[in-house]
Write a structure and sequence with these properties.
The protein has one domain (3-165): NADH Oxidase. The chain is built from seven helices and four strands. It has helices spanning 3-9, 23-33, 53-63, 66-73, 103-122, 135-141, 171-174; strands at residues 45-50, 77-84, 126-130, 148-157. The structure holds flavin mononucleotide. Flavin mononucleotide (FMN) binds at residues 11-12, 14, 67-68, 128-132, 165-166.
Amino acid sequence: MNVTECIKSRRSIRKYKPDAIDHSIIDSIVSTASYSPSWKNTQITRYIAIEDSSILSTIAEQFVPDFNAKIIRQAPMLIAVTYVKGRSGFERDGSFSTKKEDRWQMFDAGIASMSFCLAAEEQGLGTVIMGVFDEDGITGLLQIPEDRELAALIAIGYPDISPQAPKRKTVDVLLQYKSKTAPQAARHQI
Ligand SMILES: Cc1cc2nc3c(=O)[nH]c(=O)nc-3n(C[C@H](O)[C@H](O)[C@H](O)COP(=O)(O)O)c2cc1C
């Protein structure tokens, strides 16, 4: 599978087979995701792989809306994507490096999450990133330390469905060129 195939074939999977995932596979996915770019190579992203059914049930029952509970109830594993605070986007003295202030932290965690999902896809595993959850509730339940923050949840498992890709916007909409001389790019210019 080449990179383009991997990017295009990855879908958000919301229904899984009950089969457990070998830790060696999760280890290799995290190892691959560790090659993601990050702010000054700070590598702030940390993963908690939850397979304890009582923790999964508590999250499903108490800390996510129904549409995400349905996914988590039948996923063999849930990844809590966290990051170490105060490094990405920060100077050594603790001041912000840019106008985006601390938002580079979520940027880095997002890149790492995508790498994680693509590496999972290559292993035949389905994933779905979830952004709607009770952050304080899950932070308390998982005892995420003070110096870290929860960025997202990723359900992972062997897919039991193979959904079509939701419609994508066209390149015309997504891309603008700003160039002096390339006439073929003129229709994208503003
Ligand atoms: C930051 C982020 C948050 C998301 N949150 C949820 C969520 O809470 N629940 C869910 O079912 N899907 C969630 N998704 C998945 C998107 O709905 C999905 O990526 C989008 O519909 C495109 O489908 P595809 O991933 O199959 O290409 C989220 C995706 C991202 C990137």
